[in-house]
């Protein structure tokens, strides 16, 4: 076990300010919304108060010891640690609650943060012996044509026939982070091909034969899912002909294909059955590994949003297709949140944050998608798999405020030809993708719910800002 002092990365100033804010807020809320016992406090007259641990003084931090090189299991060569975590934290000072300080270091990756692995597993094997016995491995990369910007190849290279292309970029997260609106605009660029839809969910779900119901019962059938070929034909749609024609004439193609499934970042729920994860309590190999192995040069775009409003927005968007949520009110949401938070907090008492985050049973039982906002767990993993230069990390809040400047960064990152003013006008004139209809029906999130969620997510936000080395991910300016 690693001691608390070693793990605590920050000092207490920000934490104290936040605590004061929470307390001030909780004083004002006095309605009759049920509040779980863990959130009420005998010392307090308000209905929602911080747990006692939140107010405790926490030891002054020392920085974690530098990561040691780990042996790459395939090449047996040492992978040199590349520190992602800054020696001088992005967050000047802060304070984690006790439960976080106990649960975060229990993870097998806690001491390996910042150690780059590429498509190799995130930590050493969990059991001796043959790690490949389940027989499900990566989708192997192809001989990608140098003349095409997207990863393309011929099934019949001699005859120059059977062109296949895979995504050049992934808009891989997060749900309710503005990805639909962003994706619609990106695809108005003449070199971005449309494909057949936005979200394919192949890497995380459709390639496996199991349904998520099976996962719940512990049965995972990896065979019998959608083939790579079928996935790619959906990715390219009819636009493959345009690229094929460009290449057939001996020219090159700058057209790009893409996949905009925002679940790739967080959905590795089949991890229990994936090769390399045998005997583990948390995954060594996740969805991101598989994407990276197949096309190591892929570009990844991720948009993050403050996790509290994100969760509510996600809940609202799921109402029409979730029978259990029919006629749901903001009070129902509150009850789901109270229950979900309790379940995760119980898990965190016994297990690591990362173990609970990747646990599918908990994900399903919690009803509301709390997991999707546990950004530092996923980003710590993805930053070890993907080089930082291949990732563009955006904030929903910036996109909402200045769409054009964010889009410029996106087009630039993807290396797409600059648009002229007329083309920009078309991209910007596209009607905003609007999901506000449910807000009108259900109303705003209750302040009590917001308080519970802000408090629950607070250490995740701190850790996220630390992992990103960027204080904008504290969302300090956001009043949601
Ligand atoms: C973290 O950010 C600071 C300031 O933005 C920068 O100087 C430093 O190099 C960054 N550290 C890492 C490890 O990227
Ligand atoms: C996930 O959590 C549930 C409930 O806490 C537990 O019973 C189960 O063993 C966990 N699953 C895994 C794979 O750790
Ligand atoms: C902008 O580019 C498009 C596509 O290349 C072209 O048809 C159009 O004439 C250009 N408009 C201006 C104002 O340059």
Automatic annotation (TrEMBL):
InterPro entries tied to this protein: CS_Sulfotransferase, P-loop_NTPase, Sulfotransferase_dom
Top-level taxon of origin: Eukaryota
Domain Sulfotransferase: 295-421
Transmembrane in keyword set: yes
Lineage start: Eukaryota, Metazoa, Spiralia, Lophotrochozoa, Mollusca
Pfam families xrefs: Sulfotransfer_1
Record keywords, A-Z: Membrane, Transmembrane, Transmembrane helix
Transmembrane segments: 7-27
Isomerase is among the record's keywords: no
Species of the source: Batillaria attramentaria
Protein name per Swiss-Prot or TrEMBL: Sulfotransferase domain-containing protein
